[in-house]
Amino acid sequence: MADHQPENEPLVEVRDLKVYFPVLAGVLRRKVGEVKAVDKVSLDIMQGETLGLVGESGCGKTTAGRAILRLNDITDGTVKIKGKYIHKSSLKEIRKIRPTMQMIFQDPQESLNPRMTVSAIISEPLTEHQNLSKKEREERVFDLMDSVGLNRDFATRYPHEFSGGQRQRIGIARALALNPELIVCDEPIAALDVSIQAQVVNLLEDLQEERNLTYLFISHDLGMVRHIATRVAVMYLGQIVEIGKSESLYSSPLHPYTEALLSAVPEADPEIERTRKAIVLSGDVPSPANPPEGCNFCNRCPKAFDICHKVEPTLTEIEPGRFVSCHLYNG
User: Fold this and answer.
1) How many CB atoms lie within 10 A of CB 206?
2) Helix/strand/coil (H, E, C) string of the chain?
3) CA 17 and chain centroid, separation
4) CA distance linking residue 278 with residue 256, whole number of Å
């Protein structure tokens, strides 16, 4: 569990964020519906903390992360970064504040240009946003390579010459080039071998400590999120169902979906592991184009009752810093 203590000030404030994609059909490609990829998401990310965003594949985590950085268009809601509303900012304004917010992508193979050298990849943001001489740029690239543990001799090599872990270090160096405050880490270790996942996570923690970085760490690996995150938000079918401090959320999950997710995470203690039972959810995740009436989770929830099928619950603070969207607690 990360012991990095955030300052008590939100760097990012998201309110009722919606990202809907149109469903088109017919020869004329008319809109016949919409996919609610992100639906009424509200969360704060505190200065200097790591907020883990977890959930199954397809729940909208990556779309939410991209929308916060304005890499995806926002349908509705507000996003405020460092006191500035960016959800309606023009591309010109976004370009000005882009250096403060960066992203580390899931697959380093896909996110690095195979025709560019390591030096060119890392210096691209510097060329785009800063007016440095060639010598200054070169020095900055070397400093960044040092900070992520890459040998300076690698500067003239190409991405295909590196392992997955090294490629991800190149991606991290590129993200750090403009001294950002917020980094959205989109499944940054999912494409890596288990043996090097911990190395990359440790690197991210060290960099956070050195540079006072703020992370939104998106992952479906709950074990790893427990290690790195200060607080955790659990997402299901485009909505946040629970947010809380990592320690309390893992030790006493409140939402039935969080309980089910955590029941599948292996325990290090063999005694606990032997007596534990995984909660197996019935049915499949509904389509975000056609979510159920009432609570999104009602058709799979082992604790659902009448109101769950009719009324949508709201994310409610039930103890300081602990929010749950569930009728078991909303009443």
Assistant:
1) 13
2) CCCCCCCCCEEEEEEEEEEEEEEEECCCCEEEEEEEEEEEEEEEEECCCEEEEECCCCCCHHHHHHHHCCCCCCCEEEEEECCEECCCCCHHHHHHHHHHEEEECCCHHHHCCCCCCHHHHHHHHHHHHCCCCHHHHHHHHHHHHHHCCCCHHHHHCCHHHCCHHHHHHHHHHHHHCCCCCEEEEECCCCCCCHHHHHHHHHHHHHHHHHHCCEEEEEECCHHHHHHHCCEEEEEECCEEEEEEEHHHHHHCCCCHHHHHHHHCCCCCCHHHHHHCCCCCCCCCCCCCCCCCCCCCCCCCCCCCCHHHHCCCCCCEEEECCEEECCHHHHC
3) 15
4) 12
Output the six-digit token pair for 148.
């992520």
Query: How remote is the C-alpha of 111 from its chain's centroid?
Result: 16
The tens digit of pLDDT for each residue in 275-297 reads 667 787 877 888 888 899 999 99
The mean pLDDT value for 203-221 works out to 94
Q: What mean pLDDT is reported for the chain?
A: 89
Q: How confident is the model at residue 318 (pLDDT cuts 50, 70, 90)?
A: very high
**Pairing of the two strands 322-324 and 316-319:** antiparallel
Query: What gap in Å lies between CA 173 and CA 166, rounded to an integer?
Result: 11
CA distances in angstroms from 176 to 120, 164, 215, 241, listed in the order given: 14, 19, 12, 32
Q: How confident is the model at residue 1 (pLDDT cuts 50, 70, 90)?
A: very low
What single-letter amino acid sits at 100? T
Cross-strand pairs, 283: none
Question: Is residue 249 within 8 Å of residue 242, measured between CB atoms?
Answer: yes
